Amino acid sequence: MRASLPLLRTIAFPAIARRAPSTLQLNLGYLCNIACVHCHVNAGPTRKELMDRDTMQLALEFAHRHAIRTLDLTGGSPEMNPHFRWLVESARATGIHVMDRFNPTVIEEPGYAWVPDFLATQRVEVIASLPCYTQTNVDTQRGDGVFASSLRVLRQMNALGYGVDGSGLLLNLVYNPVGAFLPGPQQALEADYRQRLGEEHGIVFNQLFTLANMPIQRFGSWLQSKGQFDTYLQLLRDNHREANLEHVMCRDLISIDWQGYAYDCDFNQMLGLQLGDHDTRSHLRDLLDAELAGGAIRVAGHCFGCTAGQGSSCGGALV
Prior knowledge:
- Helices cover 34% and strands 12% of the residues.
- The chain has twelve helices and nine strands.
- A nine-stranded mixed sheet has the order 6-5-4-3-2-1-7-8-9.
- Helix 2 packs parallel to helix 3.
- The longest helix has 16 residues.
- It is globular.
């Protein structure tokens, strides 16, 4: 099997520069209760990498010095980090908006029943993975029983006010394609989700985010095993839209790995592509007083995954 990074490096992508970052995305570790086919992090139940509290404290200091108002927590399953509650409480105490990217099934794991009430108390925005509104597609991508578990948890979140108009508790869902193709139009898919989840399961939510699958890590390996890696990359390149460059997430975001090293985005983090034009990895401690706006963003062939078609970002479609 070919390594994907050498090939991705050979593919030219338009140069882009960073604006002043408004979001700090922290990967709290690769531990997760499930292992999804599309996962670009290679997260799973056997991963041991977890961010420690000292690194979290440094991240909060970084956010303070750079006037960052949004903390985007990802993983793995962020809630499985033992310092998750401390981090959220500390951030919220300073007025930082916190987003939690979680797969709903973690709440049904032993020891995690506290998660829904805690998130609601802290008024954390929840971004929940639900790659389809049908059991077959979800269980194929994420494992047997994941769909039923996710529905139970989403009903629990609704009961707390999440996704309910006027509550202020945001529940957004995430759709990923189940194969080597681009997501359909976000607005149309959101309407389908609302109808199917509402009529068949009594579930409400605020928004649907459609994300393209990135040809790296576990999904990249899956593409290679199916002989679809080159075809998928060509699909992304053929559907590139120049207008999406203005809105890609890396222009306003800094991504931090579990050890505290900084990257232009979560995908570059997984590929080990250091921040911008830096020659070596940059740690949070080295960036506390750095000027970040205007810096070059490191790009390669996988970046077409963010600019193809309607575009793709951590906040869903770009246009």
